[in-house]
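Notebook, p. 212. Picked up where the previous page left off. The plan for this session was modest: take the two constructs that came back from the sequencing core last week, fold each one, and keep the raw output in the notebook itself so nobody has to go hunting through shared drives later. Recording the first one now, exactly as returned: residue sequence, then the structure token string.
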Amino acid sequence: LIPGEIVDRLTAGDNPIRVFREWRGHTAADLAEQVGIAPSYLSQIETGKREGRLETISAIAQALELDLADIADWVTRARGQSAN
């Protein structure tokens, strides 16, 4: 189960990758290394400057011990909120 404080952050529109990364206790540098991407690329994904390739997002989800759908659902919601 996802703690309420995490759901609150996600519902507020915080980037799901950053929220889940912090919840799992990873630094951005550690997660980027584990996934095999540059920390700057991860930062761009987390700030919304880049969307990230499906393969990359899938690898991030796996590293965070999540299903791709867990991240994709929140990304879709966040994009819908930013369009309003």
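Okay, moving on. Second construct, recorded in the same format:
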Amino acid sequence: MALTKIRDAGLPEGSVLQVVSNFITTDFNTNSTSFVTTGLSQAITPTSTSSKILCLVSIPGWYLSGSGGESHVTVYRGSTNLGTGTANALMYTVNDQLRIPSTTQVLDSPATTSATTYTVYGKVGSSSNTTYISYPSYGHFTITLMEIAG
């Protein structure tokens, strides 16, 4: 059944209309204090302008080199950062430690029925640190998008 037919079937608000996912198995690392793309993204085409998109990000491994510091991850819709405040979508303060796993979620209201791409970005709080995300031996660095009926 086509997604438009599912929507027309009168499913209640909050119903999941579609799910798409993507992953990468390569490491991402940066010592940039500005957000840079991790290379992980996924597109979705909402069936209604009232739909919401629940974006789930799973990080199988997380490491920050140096003595203390901050690692940030956020989600962009196109060129718009969906994170809030200084912590953005997710923040860790660590001392040379591996964290397994880390997850975050963002609920977005894109108000469109056009294809929309969500991308995970990362940065550090100080250029004297480097953040390492993914670690293929621990699993996949994953983004999952769910369209929720509005």
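Notes on construct two before I forget. The mean pLDDT is 82.
Flagging for discussion at group meeting.
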